[in-house]
Amino acid sequence: MLKFNSELTINVKLTYSNDELECFKLLELCPDVFGMRHTKKFKGFLFSRKSVDGALNNKHNVKLRNFYSNPPSIPNHSLLCSDVDINQSPMYCAGRYNKFSRALPQSPWIIKGKRRFNTSVQELFSKDVQALFKAQDYTFSSSGREDVDVRMLGNGRPFSIELINPKRTKVPQKEIDDLMERLNKEHATNIKLNDMQTISKDDLKYLKEGEDSKTKIYEALCVSKKPLTDELLSNLTSCIPLVIEQKTPIRVLHRRANMVRNKTIHSMNITAVPHSSTNQTYFCLNLETQAGTYVKEFVNGDFGRTTPNLGSLLNDPDIDILALDVLSINLDWPPKKKYS
């Protein structure tokens, strides 16, 4: 029998009222399988397709003749078609997004049935993409995520949308571009979409494979109670590349396993920010880090759960972070657009 994968699947459900009655001989033929199921008062249909196929494939024709007549008796009921289900294989739309708001989560934030924020990055455009492809449903995923109060600037964050059972399988790139332009105008204060396009399932592999190998560039506004001396700044740059140990941050312990992660800081530099305060020093911290580094905790130390941290390197345990931006996610994805 030839087997092949099809993008369109048609499932036809056929029912026959005497199915179980005609299968009852299997209780004698395979007592080790169906006898046990019958004794345990198996819930539902006693003879599933999988169990019957498995039993018959292991029996010789000679043994079957002892239990079933040849030729078989004429059925006294018709075979009925009870349902026809048509499904299209998923399609995938990908791109990159910028987030400009410090009060916008990436996905719906619902705690104990109550929303914390009115909307999310995902909700601002995923439903529109679903409608364009006339899909039954969708699944949103991305290359990592930023905190609610963190902006995603620069080249944006890669994302993909799996479109489940789409009715449109050939959507011109111009329609995708038009949708992207409209959404960027509607949500200009919150997000911006870039490089939206249809991709193949194989293209998703590189998105996942790049999770550990990619690097990210951050910019953070920080505050210190001590002045930044040339000696301290020199010590800071001389320790690069820097491997740090991070226990799962306290703020995410409720949803992530408590473990230690080793992450690498690839580059780090500090620029003083002029300010009228006489007892505090404000500075801009630029970092290039391994993906998965908790930058906030690297700055504030997270009560010693991240070591070394910026406070220990600058000999100031009171250093804190005021604002954080992601400037770049160094992952060449999605693929270049293929216009149709």
The average pLDDT score comes to 88
Low-confidence stretches: none
Q: Provide the CATH top-level class of the largest domain.
A: Alpha Beta
User: What portion of residues belong to β-strands?
Assistant: 25-35%
Indicate the radius of gyration in whole angstroms: 30 Å
Distance between the termini: 36 Å
Q: Helical region count?
A: 11
Mass-distribution shape: elongated
Helices and strands, in order, run as EHHHHHEEEEHEEHEHEHEEEHEHE
Please outline the major beta sheet: 10 strands, mixed
CATH topology of the largest domain: Alpha-Beta Plaits
Number of strands: 14
Number of discrete domains: 3
Give the proportion of residues in helices: 25-40%
| SSE class | alpha+beta
Q: At CATH's second level, what is the architecture of the largest domain? A: 2-Layer Sandwich
